[in-house]
């Protein structure tokens, strides 16, 4: 029995593979990120939300956000070890998980557009280049947190037409004080900001919303894709909730900027399962 896990800032998907390397069951828990959670909090999340039976577990392959820092990776090892015991635990970044899911063993540019954003040049085996996205406070252009931040700015600065502002407050009866408190004083401000993207999805046919979303994706390409020397020669692959729900606008921007459109998926799990099934079969 093996577990394949893919974790972002908002949710974590856990799939259990049987002795024939076929998915037998799965569950979803809250997102895990050692930058925002201590080891004890991660263990508590698993104790409250993880429901899979782990008898005869032989390995855990975990892909998640916040593990590029060695200290944070070790904290996550500690938390997962405390919960799952002495089984072999393999921890890799969510970005490598996205690349393996989207590209398999082929070269490509793989990106995540979910609550956060990231990108890499994948050489068919590992990440060969990575342009830092700088996180939700300094970058993450095109992500849910970024889109939420831009939307909030346009609403409270009255940069959208009156009818859109009214529609927003009909959907979210919040004050500026509410927003500032959630962003600056409450945990997980990136999740909070990304939550407003549902408004964008519900009104994506509006030209003002479309322009805002496309501008954010263009900014992502400028800051996170153009610097790769291989970018024009390889397909651009994307995974994540934002890439999926706004895939039409994303494809338009990719083509307008002269790039090749690759795979666009809602989450990496299907591709990750296939990647690991092939890997296990070779062992």
How would you describe the overall organization of this protein?
The protein is built from 13 helices and ten strands. By secondary structure, the chain is of the alpha/beta class. It starts with a strand and ends with a helix. The strands form two sheets. It has a five-stranded mixed beta sheet, sandwiched between helices. Strands 8-7-6-9-10 form a five-stranded mixed beta sheet, sandwiched between helices. The longest helix has 18 residues. 38% of the residues are buried. It has a domain of 111 residues: 2-Layer Sandwich (Nucleotidyltransferase, domain 5), CATH 3.30.420. It is globular. The mean pLDDT is 90. 46% of the residues lie in helices and 20% in strands. α3 crosses α13.
Helices and strands in order, then pairings?
Blueprint: E1 2-7, E2 11-17, E3 23-30, H1 39-49, E4 59-64, H2 70-84, E5 89-93, H3 94-103, E6 108-113, E7 117-122, E8 127-129, H4 135-138, H5 144-156, H6 162-171, H7 176-184, H8 189-194, H9 197-202, H10 207-224, E9 235-239, H11 241-245, H12 247-256, E10 260-265, H13 269-282
Parallel strand pairs: 1-4, 4-5, 6-9, 9-10
Antiparallel strand pairs: 1-2, 2-3, 6-7, 7-8
Helix pairs in contact: 1-2, 3-13, 10-12
Provide key terms for this protein:
283 residues, alpha/beta, Nucleotidyltransferase, domain 5, 5-stranded mixed sheet, 13 helices, 10 strands, 46% helix, 20% strand, globular
């Amino acid at each position: 029995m093996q577990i394949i896990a893919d974790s972002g800032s908002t949710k974590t998907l856990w799939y259990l593979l049987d002795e024939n390397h076929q998915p037998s069951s799965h569950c979803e828990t809250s997102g895990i990120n050692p930058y925002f959670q201590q080891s004890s909090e991660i263990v508590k999340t698993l104790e409250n939300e993880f429901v899979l039976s782990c008898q005869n577990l032989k390995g855990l392959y975990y892909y998640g956000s916040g593990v590029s820092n060695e200290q944070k990776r070790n904290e996550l090892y500690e938390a997962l070890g405390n919960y799952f015991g002495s089984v072999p635990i393999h921890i890799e970044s969510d970005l490598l998980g996205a690349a393996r899911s989207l590209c398999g063993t082929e070269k490509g540019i793989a990106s995540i557009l979910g609550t956060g954003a990231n990108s890499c040049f994948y050489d068919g085996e590992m990440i060969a280049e990575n342009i830092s996205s700088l996180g939700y406070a300094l970058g993450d252009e095109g992500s849910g947190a970024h889109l939420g931040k831009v939307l909030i700015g346009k609403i409270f600065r009255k940069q959208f037409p009156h009818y859109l502002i009214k529609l927003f407050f009909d959907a979210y009866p919040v004050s500026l004080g509410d927003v500032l408190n959630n962003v600056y004083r409450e945990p997980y401000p990136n999740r909070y900001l990304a939550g407003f993207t549902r408004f964008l999805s519900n009104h994506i046919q509006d030209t003002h919303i479309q322009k805002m979303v496309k501008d954010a994706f263009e900014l992502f390409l400028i800051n996170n894709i153009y610097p790769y020397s291989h970018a024009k020669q390889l397909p651009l692959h994307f995974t994540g909730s934002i890439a999926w729900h706004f895939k039409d606008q994303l494809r338009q921007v990719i083509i307008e900027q002269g790039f090749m459109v690759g795979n666009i998926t809602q989450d990496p799990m299907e591709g990750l399962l296939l990647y690991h099934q092939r890997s296990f079969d070779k062992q």
